[in-house]
Known about the structure:
Blueprint: E1 5-14, E2 31-39, E3 43-47, H1 54-61, E4 69-74, E5 83-84, H2 91-97, E6 98-101, H3 114-124, H4 129-142, H5 158-170, E7 176-180, H6 188-203, E8 207-211, H7 215-218, E9 223-228, E10 231-236, H8 238-242, H9 245-250, H10 257-265, H11 279-292
Parallel strand pairs: 3-8, 3-9, 6-7, 7-8
Antiparallel strand pairs: 1-2, 1-4, 4-5, 9-10
Helix pairs in contact: 3-4, 3-5, 4-5, 5-6, 10-11
Amino acid sequence: MSSKNIIEAKNLIFTYSDAPDALSGKVTAAVNDISVDIERGSFTAIIGHNGSGKSTLAKLLSGIFVPNSGSVQVYRSDCDMPLDCNNEEHNFDIRKTVGMVFQNPDNQLVATIVEDDVAFAPENLGVEPSEIRKRVDSALETVGLIEYSGHDTHKLSGGQKQRVAIAGILAMNPECIIFDESTAMLDPQGRRDIMDTILSLRKKGVTVVLITHYMNEAAMADKVVVVHDGRVAFEGTPKQVFANKKILSECSLEPPQCSMLIDKLSRFIDCDAPCAINVKEAVEVIEKALAKHGIMPGGEDKNA
């Protein structure tokens, strides 16, 4: 078993059609020679503009798509040998190891009652009824919906439906969950709820991969992978990625709002750390900058 990575992707190439593009006359690969490792227990964000290939990459990492060339290997914690996404015999074990939550919550629900929906996957896996009951209760508790177990799924909000979908994946006991723009169709409160759930899963040791175009969400990750035109343009910590204005500009991306705020303020006041990727860091930078000018937090002027 790999002691470090749960997913290892090497030189992935994937095209949706062998037909050449009408304008260029070439076959364009949605994913073009991508290699990426997902560390066990980590939170990785994959970002890129629309059409960059990030969602295609997510489907390759989960085994939903099989690459035209290259390999994806999944390492289960209870298996000495890696699972190969190119090997159909491994598909069942891969599905149990890597779960995926999609963008539209309405497309993921299969039952009219919340607890029945969460129980659907383990039932089809042949799990014992008593174990299913435990898994359903545990999954709903994790996503904060235990009191909604008997509710109609169609009466839930978008954010609640997405959390039911997550619970359905959790009931399969996966080691990794890939979220493919799972907050894109939600309102701000729904997005916050899903991000709270993701961070909770991360603390419990579940490996999380988040495909997103919200930079504030990517800033919460351990590692950020920037995908552009089917290739990995850059990867690193959130600070490393969002401090690289050249790469962000070339990939038609912007840094998190806090970073943009500090960048604009730095044109008028002296900021020691112009790259702040969250509210806490932004506040610290602003307080230090104001203190240099004799202004204390709360609006007091120590020189007055």
